[in-house]
Amino acid sequence: PQLANQIAAGEVVERPASVVKELLENSLDAGARKVDVDIESGGIKLIRLRDDGFGIDKEDLALALSRHATSKILQLEDLEAVASLGFRGEALASISSVARLSLISRTAQQDAAWQVRAEGRDMEAVLSPAAHPQGTTVEVRDLFFNTPARRKFLKTEQTEFRHLEEVIKRMALSRFDVAFNLQHNGRRVQQLRPVDGEQARERRLASLLGAAFIEQAVHLDVSAEASGLRLWGWIGLPTYSRSQADQQYFFVNGRIIRDKVVTHAVRQAYADVLFHGRHPAFVLYLELDPALVDVNVHPTKHEVRFRESRLVHDFIFRTLHRVIADLRP
Ligand code: ADP
Ligand code: MG
C-alpha cells in the first residue's frame, strides 16, 4: 500500500503548494472559520496548518491517514453531487507517504486532544494525548525527504512560497467568511479577517489582487431562475486587461477550476472589445446544483465536467456579454 500511496502522491503532491491546497480544503470542509498557516523555508521544511473546524474523533485519527478513507462520501450516490472540496480520501495518505506528518485534533465532544504521526514508509500511526483547542493542526515536515528524485524538482524556497501564496489567495477569494493568516519564517505575510457585504469583499479583493483591479472592476450578480444558475463577481474593464493571464479566477461552487467551456464563454464575451493578445481580468463565481457538475475528473480536482455544458456556456457568455457591451465607450 505504501508504494501505491507514493504513486498517488505524485498526482496530488507535486510541491508544498499542493500540500497547502489539500490541507486548506480539509479545513474548509470541516467548517473552519479561521485558518492559520505557518511556513518555513518555502514549505519544504515545514507546513503547519491550524483550524478551528469540527475536528477528528480520537477513533478516526489514524484512519484519516489511510488511503481512500474519507468521511465525506458515504455512498456512491454522493459522488454524483459532491458538496465538499475533498472526496477522494487520499490527500493525507499521499502526503504522509512523502513527508513526516503529524495530526492533532480535538472535537467539541472531547475534553482532550489526540495526536497521530506518520513518517514516510513507517506508516504506523501512534496515538498520544496532546494539548489543543477544538479544531485540527496538521504539521508536514521535510517534504519528499524519502523521495529525493522528486525533491530535486522543487524550485527555490522563494518560488515555492510564491506558489503557496497563490493557493492561499485563491482560497481567500473563494471564502470571504473565513479568516486566513499566513506566516513565512516567523514573519507575518498575510492577515485576512472574515468579511461580509460587497464593500468588505472588495477590500479583501484589493488586498489580494491590488487596488488597481477593484478600482476599475464592475460588480455583477445574475441569476437565471429557470436553470438555477447564478454568476456573480467582478470583471475588469477591457482597457485594464493585463498582458498576462494572471488575474483570472473562476470558481464553480466554491472550487477554483480550469475549464475549456468556461474559458471559451468568457473569451467570446470579451471578443468584441478586447484587443488581440490581451487578457481580461476577472474573479467570477458560478453557482449551480452540484448534481449538474462532475468534479471527479482528475485527482487535483481542478477540472470539472458540466452535465449540460451548452447551457452553462451560453449562460456565462450571455451574462458577461450584456455587462461588457454596456461598458463600451
Ligand atoms: P478527503 O478530504 O478526500 O476526505 P483527506 O485524505 O484529505 O481525504 O482527509 C481524510 C479524512 O480526514 C477526511 O475525510 C476527514 O474526515 C479527516 N480530516 C482531514 N483533515 C481534517 C480537518 N482539518 N478537520 C477535520 N477532519 C479532517
Ligand atoms: Mg481532503
TrEMBL record:
A GO molecular-function annotation: ATP-dependent DNA damage sensor activity
Coiled-coil stretches: none
Annotated keywords: DNA damage, DNA repair
DNA mismatch repair protein S5 domain boundaries: 205-325
Signal peptide span: none
GO cellular component annotations of the record: mismatch repair complex
GO biological process terms on file: mismatch repair
TM helices/strands, residue ranges: none
Main function: This protein is involved in the repair of mismatches in DNA. It is required for dam-dependent methyl-directed DNA mismatch repair. May act as a 'molecular matchmaker', a protein that promotes the formation of a stable complex between two or more DNA-binding proteins in an ATP-dependent manner without itself being part of a final effector complex.
Family (UniProt): Belongs to the DNA mismatch repair MutL/HexB family.
Protein name: DNA mismatch repair protein MutL
